[in-house]
Write a structure and sequence with these properties.
This is Monocarboxylate transporter 13. It is found in: Membrane. The protein has helices spanning 2-19, 31-55, 60-67, 69-102, 104-110, 120-123, 126-134, 137-153, 155-166, 171-198, 203-219, 227-256, 261-289, 293-310. With 311 residues, the protein is an all-alpha fold. It has two domains: 1-113; 124-311, Growth Hormone, Chain: A (Up-down Bundle), CATH 1.20.1250. Helix 1 runs antiparallel to helix 2 (31-55) and helix 3 crosses helix 12. The two termini are 36 Å apart.
Length: 311
């Protein structure tokens, strides 16, 4: 069971990374804990999503959307849950409980059963797949587009709280707005997955639509200081950015085939992580040298626009 082993071992790695975290919230994470946690998450997420693409051929977008709703649920529920755990069991005890929860990845990985497809022998081994993907023009353009989109995708989660406090919002109301974004994100993932299967034609068209709407909603944040307008934009951004995610992953099997999905998805996520890694520091630099967080939000929305043009 190659798929199950691939997901189970990183689950143990992820758990070990959380266990190695420092015993105080004021202490910086150790390099070992950061490496184990990041590696465990990456090596769990990629094979799991690739398995999902191989399991479903008719309702792949909906299955992907439902599988990714866990991100929205955790964003909504985990922050208050962790604060409650810290207040009851202290920082170290809360981390140990979270590491115990992460061990469920091992059991979930054991449920991923191998599936043989007719096109598997045709695509060759990992080296042959990698070589063919590096010479696959549409795949390379798709990877570049997703990297540009990823550069601006997470900016509201980094800067929106500070932007709201600059407008005079109290921290509790600002945190509530982020929870609204998380709930809207969850709904958007399910709706987008359903539309991806219900609407005829390539799923890439829906990806372009959701990318455009996400960029527009992000660009409007600096020009909407009223609380009602900000709430509306938060719901719109959460829905469209959540809707973007399942179709982004559903496009890949159509582009390269399910036989090369493991190698293709791993390569895409490796490259797109560069955009996610650079997005927050670049927006922080914009924040320091310009007129607060407004310019950095607009600049990151332009990054989504460049990704749309590349698509």
């Amino acid at each position: 069971n190659t798929q199950g082993r691939t997901a189970r071992k990183p689950g143990l790695c992820y758990r070990g990374g959380i266990t190695q975290c420092p015993g105080s919230p004021k202490s910086p994470p150790t390099p070992l804990s950061s490496f184990l946690t990041g590696s465990g998450w990456a090596l769990t997420f990629t094979p799991t999503l690739a398995c999902l693409s191989r399991y479903f051929s008719r309702r792949r977008s909906l299955a992907t959307g439902l599988a990714l709703t866990g991100v929205g649920l955790s964003s909504f529920a985990f922050a208050p849950l962790f604060q409650w755990l810290v207040s009851r069991y202290a920082w170290r005890g809360a981390l140990l409980l979270v590491s115990a929860l992460s061990l469920h990845l091992v059991a979930c990985g054991a449920l991923l059963r191998p599936l043989s497809l007719r096109e598997d022998p045709i695509v060759g081994g990992p080296a042959a797949q990698l070589t063919s993907l590096l010479h696959h023009g549409p795949f390379l353009r798709y990877t570049a587009a997703i990297t540009l989109i990823n550069t601006g995708y997470f900016i509201p989660y980094v800067h929106l709280l500070a932007h709201l406090q600059d407008l005079g919002w109290d921290p509790l109301s600002a945190a509530f707005l982020l929870s609204v974004v998380a709930v809207s994100d969850l709904v958007g993932r399910v709706v987008s997955g359903w539309l991806g299967d219900a609407v005829p034609g390539p799923v890439a068209r829906l990806l372009m639509l959701w990318t455009a709407l996400t960029g527009v909603s992000l660009a409007l944040f600096p020009v909407a200081p009223a609380p009602t307008a900000l709430m509306t934009l938060a719901v719109a951004y959460g829905f469209t950015s959540g809707a973007l995610t399942p179709v982004a992953f559903s496009v890949l099997p159509e582009l390269v085939g399910t036989g090369r999905i493991y190698c293709a998805l791993g390569l895409v996520q490796m490259v797109e992580s560069i955009g996610g890694l650079l997005g927050a520091p670049l927006s922080g630099k914009e924040d320091r040298v310009s007129w607060g967080g407004q310019v950095c939000i607009i600049a990151m929305s332009c990054s989504l626009g460049r990704g749309l043009v590349t698509l």
